[in-house]
Specification:
By secondary structure, this protein is of the alpha/beta class. It has helices at 3-14, 18-28, 88-106, 162-168, 171-179, 183-188, 190-200, 206-220, 233-238, 240-272, 277-284, 288-301, and strands spanning 38-45, 61-67, 70-79, 115-121, 153-156. It has 2 domains: 3-243, no CATH class; 253-301.
Length: 303
Amino acid sequence: MGIKQRHNNWFMHIFNYPVVVKDLLMSFVHEDFVKDLEFASLKKLNPDFFPASGKSRHADVIYEITSHGQTSYIYIFIEFQSTVDWFMPLRMARYMLEFYDELRRSGKQKFLNPSFAILLYNGEPIWNAPENLSDLFLDSSIPKEFLPEFRYYKIAINEIPKRDLLRLRNAVSAVFFIENSNPSEINKNYDELVYILREVIKKTCGVEIIQQIMNRIFEIYRLPQNSKTITSIEDIMEAKNMLETKTKIWEKEILEKGIKKGIEKTAINMIKIGETDSKIALCTGLSIEQIVELRNRIQKENR
């Protein structure tokens, strides 16, 4: 299983808990309708019941919820692409229409229940794709009311300030903080992270959620999954020494990579100005074989 798929599966698993979806909506969806949602009615649906056709796909997470006695759907699509998909409004509109078509086939109602589509983006590039389907259309004499309309709600983890995540103190903010931080940042803010998890553990399924979050930290640090069972906040504190040790190893690896990159750059510059292999070896500590390899690489790039 690839890294992207593991990330995706972990996210899908953490959103199996209704309390986590509640935190997501209340803390990261800044729309008035959220305050009217009856969170006690949250019910997760199996996306496999809504198969997509062709190369399309269904939502990663679908929840049913009521508001003022009416059923609605929370449709969460998790995106881990390394590049931004400009046509995301078109993709998600297609997913939503297929979802509605399956609802039509499975029921006898004349009208469809409304859905709220969320794009949860966890890539590195800044998300700059349109959020409205109408923004993909060229200007035309055709009136806009005759063009299809659709908009998704974007939550881009890399756009949320880390200090804001630490201040929110809920399960989703802890998840987003971990996903948006390198191991050194996690280690530096570990005490604050524990404070957040202390609040999470008081909630329904709190221990299960914390175990999932700690497993994610262990994965980031390349520690064995489930290497420690978390049953209390003290267990999380005990894991700190192990994480501190791993952080030092990670920082050492980063430093060594930086030094290696700097040495290689120096050698390349010396090759370009015509220095001999022996002088380059003396100045950089590289072997003659490594320098010859660099020379060959430069020649290939210049062809």
